[in-house]
Design goal:
- With 145 residues, the protein is α/β, with parallel strands linked by helices.
- It has a single domain (2-136), classed as D-tyrosyl-trna(Tyr) Deacylase, Chain: A (3-Layer(bba) Sandwich), CATH 3.50.80.10.
- Helix content is 24%, strand content 39%.
- It is built from three helices and eight strands, in the order βββαββαβαββ.
- The protein has helices at residues 39-51, 66-69, 99-116, and strands at residues 2-15, 18-23, 26-32, 55-56, 62-64, 72-77, 120-122, 130-144.
- Strands 1, 2, 3, 6, 7 and 8 form a six-stranded mixed beta sheet that branches.
- Strand 4 (55-56) and strand 5 form a beta hairpin.
- Helix 1 packs across helix 3 (99-116).
- The longest helix has 18 residues, at 99-116.
- The protein is globular and about 45 Å long.
């Protein structure tokens, strides 16, 4: 499971011109599920998302987590993050989970996130989405679990 996290001053996801998910300050997470992923990977990713210290404290150091700040969490499925780009000029998606498994584990992540964090929004799994982001910093990290 791979998550590209971006510290956001604001972010939203639109599908066919309709806003389906939005946050103010917080994290935008583009998430890819890989074939070997299990519910244990989901739990580990959620722990990282909620506790990874990417927000500044009063001294300006990245010492605060999303749980500390209470910011929003916008989860967006993105199978292209699982692409193998090591050779050739076209990505291979053989390292991405089949859609049924990806949908199941993405939904599990959403459910568990909503049980543990007050502000969770999502894109729409499998949809053609337009993601709007004001990246704060910019601060972007790739988390692998």
């Amino acid at each position: 499971m791979r998550g590209l996290i971006q510290r956001a001053a604001g972010a939203r996801v639109e599908v066919a011109g309709e806003v389906v998910g939005a946050i103010e300050q917080g994290l935008l997470v583009l998430l890819a599920v890989e074939p070997q992923d299990t519910p244990a990977h989901v739990a580990k990713m959620l722990h990282k998302l909620l506790n990874y210290r990417v927000f500044s404290d009063t001294a300006g150091k990245m010492n605060l987590s999303l749980s500390d700040t209470g910011g929003g969490l916008l989860l967006v499925s993105q199978f292209t993050l699982a692409a193998d780009t090591r050779s050739g000029m076209r990505p291979s998606f053989s390292s991405a989970a089949p859609p049924a498994l990806a949908a199941e584990l993405f939904q599990l992540l959403v459910e568990q996130a909503r049980a543990k964090h007050p502000h969770v929004a999502t894109g729409r799994f499998g949809a053609d989405m337009q993601v709007h982001l004001v990246n704060d910093g910019p601060v972007t990290f790739l988390l692998d679990v």
